[in-house]
Amino acid sequence: MATYTGSSDKYSAFALLQLVIDNKEFKEAMSEAHEKLDRYAKKCLYIGQNLETVGRSLVAPLSAATAVFSDFDDKMRRVAAVTGAGSGAMASMTEVAKKLGAATAFTASQVAEGMGSLGMMGFSSGEIKEAISQMMNLSMVTGTELAEASTIAANQLRVFRMDASKTGEVADILAATANGSAQNLTDLGEALKTAAPFAAQAGGT
């Protein structure tokens, strides 16, 4: 009976020791598994953050390009509205605006805005295409916004009943007058609103 008990005690002790060893190995295995999972989770988070950053970097230029196109399209629609130009004439003016926007310091939207100002002054699509480059030159040499420079110059052409082919001459006179005095083109434009009609009636140019 004692021998049996001793064997049982030895067996129990061995079983307990084995359980402790197995439990230790289990804990180590679980700990290693947790570490791997933690590293994997951090790696996934890093990848996710990079993908989000890449996504934003791709979306931002696309959003900006969409906004630029929308602005240009809106301004060309305004040109169509104020000139009453048909689809063929609008296609031609749109092409001119894009080319000037690509080849000069002005954007296509700014060119379109200048075209709209000329249209508001009664210029036809053909006159607009002929005059817009001269208006851009006037804008640059006087440091005036293209739309405003276009309005001022176009107003003088209309007041003195001059043909659009004279746009270059008028632009040169306005630029020389504004840059040769203490006035800027905006001030000159305001003064001409009052003086030009009287000068036109008197036969002046």
Can you walk through the features of this model?
85% of the residues lie in helices and 0% in strands. With 205 residues, the chain is an all-alpha fold.
Distance between the termini: 137 Å
Q: What coarse outline follows from CA principal-axis ratios?
A: elongated
Helicity level, as a percent range? over 70%
- The gyration radius over C-alpha positions equals 39 Å
Report the biggest beta sheet as strand number plus sense, adding barrel if it closes.
none
| Content of β-strand | under 5%
Give the SSE layout.
Elements: H1 2-83, H2 87-103, H3 108-120, H4 125-142, H5 146-159, H6 167-179, H7 185-201
Keywords:
single chain, 205 residues, mainly alpha, 7 helices, 0% strand, elongated, disordered N terminus
Summarize the structure.
The protein is mainly alpha-helical and 205 residues long. It has 7 helices and no strands. 25% of the residues are buried.
